[in-house]
Amino acid sequence: MVHWKIFSLLFIGYVLKAIVASSDPGSLADLAKILSQLAGGDNCVFRCPKGYKPLTNPKHKPSSDGCGSMGIKLDTSNFPGFTRCCNLHDVCYDTCNNDRAPMR
């Protein structure tokens, strides 16, 4: 659920960025701050689904590929905190459980 909330916020931010790119740059920076805070900013906290506790698989090396999914990469350079938030999500997804089925 959190995955789709973040993706939705990123997508909305990306669309709004494209719409207002030619207008006042200050308003875009303000919008980026607001969206970043809505997504948790630098303090993103992810919880494992269904109350699972994070587990460590000693053979697994957690990885992160930034913001995006299924080959689609989102440019989050104008949205402070988003990339870190996406990276934290990836690490959490890697450690919550062994099931790699998409979260619904």
TrEMBL record:
Residues making up the signal peptide according to the UniProt record: 1-17
Highest taxon of the lineage: Eukaryota
Keywords: Signal
One Pfam family per UniProt: PLA2G12
GO cellular component terms, semicolon-separated: extracellular region
Keyword Signal: yes
Record-annotated membrane-spanning stretches: none
KW Nucleotide-binding (keyword) present: no
GO process terms (BP): arachidonate secretion; lipid catabolic process; phospholipid metabolic process
Annotated protein name in UniProt: Uncharacterized protein
Species, as recorded: Desmophyllum pertusum
InterPro entries in the record: PLA2G12, PLipase_A2_dom_sf
A GO molecular-function annotation: calcium ion binding
